[in-house]
């Protein structure tokens, strides 16, 4: 439980760092730092720790994270861009991965929160992973149902060009507490974190 809690805390810290890195905030410089009194909590006395009182940690399931497609070419990054259809400056809340008839897979285990059709995203799937949501758009076919529990790597659909698009690709985004974060950075950092753990 300690390992899973530490891992979850690491992931939440990672998400905070990504969100904060995306926001430009003015610096506040204080000439005289305010005096802050920090309360000291009362620490209860405990019995001394012995080897007999230490229990082994239970086996925890390993977090499995994969890329949504096996073969792809990134055609549009996260952030501000010139929209390919309108030609206007537009914020792109995900990444576009071009491929032909690619099987789209869930990046982590989770529960299908919603599926349907959106005028911009076309056929889409949104998966709740507990601490983030992943969104897969422009699908030609959806292979999961609302409320379905799925494992990492489970096929959620086939790439397509439904909705507002210039060609076949997967629109992939990650949302944390209602805020879109860079999915490329998120996946790279979480995969790097898992690799460092092993």
Task: Summarize the structure in words.
18% of the residues lie in helices and 31% in strands. It is an alpha+beta fold. Helix 1 packs antiparallel against helix 2. It is globular and about 45 Å long. The protein starts with a helix and ends with a helix. About 9% of the residues have low confidence.
Mean pLDDT: 80
Number of helices: 2
Order of SSEs: HEEEEEEEEEEEEH
Unreliable stretches covering 5 or more consecutive residues: 24-41
Task: Give the overall silhouette.
Answer: globular
The residue fraction in helices comes out at: 10-25%
What is the percentage of strand-forming residues?
25-35%
Structural class: alpha+beta
Question: What Rg do the Cα atoms give?
Answer: 21 Å
- Quaternary state of the chains: single chain
Distance between the termini: 17 Å
What is the total tally of β strands? Answer: 12
Largest sheet: 10 strands, antiparallel
Structural topology:
Layout: H1 2-22, E1 73-76, E2 79-82, E3 89-92, E4 95-98, E5 103-105, E6 110-118, E7 122-128, E8 133-142, E9 149-150, E10 155-159, E11 170-176, E12 179-181, H2 183-197
Antiparallel strand pairs: 1-4, 2-3, 4-11, 5-10, 6-7, 6-9, 7-8, 8-10, 8-11, 11-12
Helix pairs in contact: 1-2
Primary descriptors:
2 helices; 198 residues; globular; alpha+beta
Q: Quick recap of the structure?
A:
Helix content is 18%, strand content 31%. By secondary structure, the protein is α+β, with helices and mostly antiparallel strands. Strands 1, 4, 5, 6, 7, 8, 9, 10, 11 and 12 form a ten-stranded antiparallel β-sheet that branches.
């Amino acid at each position: 439980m300690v390992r899973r809690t530490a891992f979850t805390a690491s992931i939440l810290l990672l998400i905070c760092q990504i969100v904060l890195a995306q926001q430009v905030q003015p610096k506040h410089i204080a000439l005289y730092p305010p005096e802050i009194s920090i309360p000291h909590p009362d620490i209860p006395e405990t019995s001394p720790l012995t080897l007999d009182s230490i229990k082994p940690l239970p086996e925890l399931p390993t977090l499995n994270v994969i890329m949504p497609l096996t073969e792809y070419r990134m055609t549009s990054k996260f952030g501000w861009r010139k929209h390919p259809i309108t030609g206007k400056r537009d914020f792109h809340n995900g990444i576009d991965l071009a491929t032909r008839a690619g099987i789209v897979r869930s990046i982590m285990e989770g529960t299908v929160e919603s599926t349907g059709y959106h005028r911009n995203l076309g056929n889409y799937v949104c998966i709740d992973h507990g601490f983030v949501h992943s969104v897969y758009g422009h699908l030609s076919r959806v292979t999961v149902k609302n409320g379905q529990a799925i494992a990492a790597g489970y096929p959620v659909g086939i790439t397509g060009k439904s909705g507002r698009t210039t060609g076949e690709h997967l629109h992939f985004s990650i949302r944390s507490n209602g805020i879109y974060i860079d999915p490329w950075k998120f996946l790279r950092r979480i995969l790097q974190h898992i690799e460092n753990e092993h």
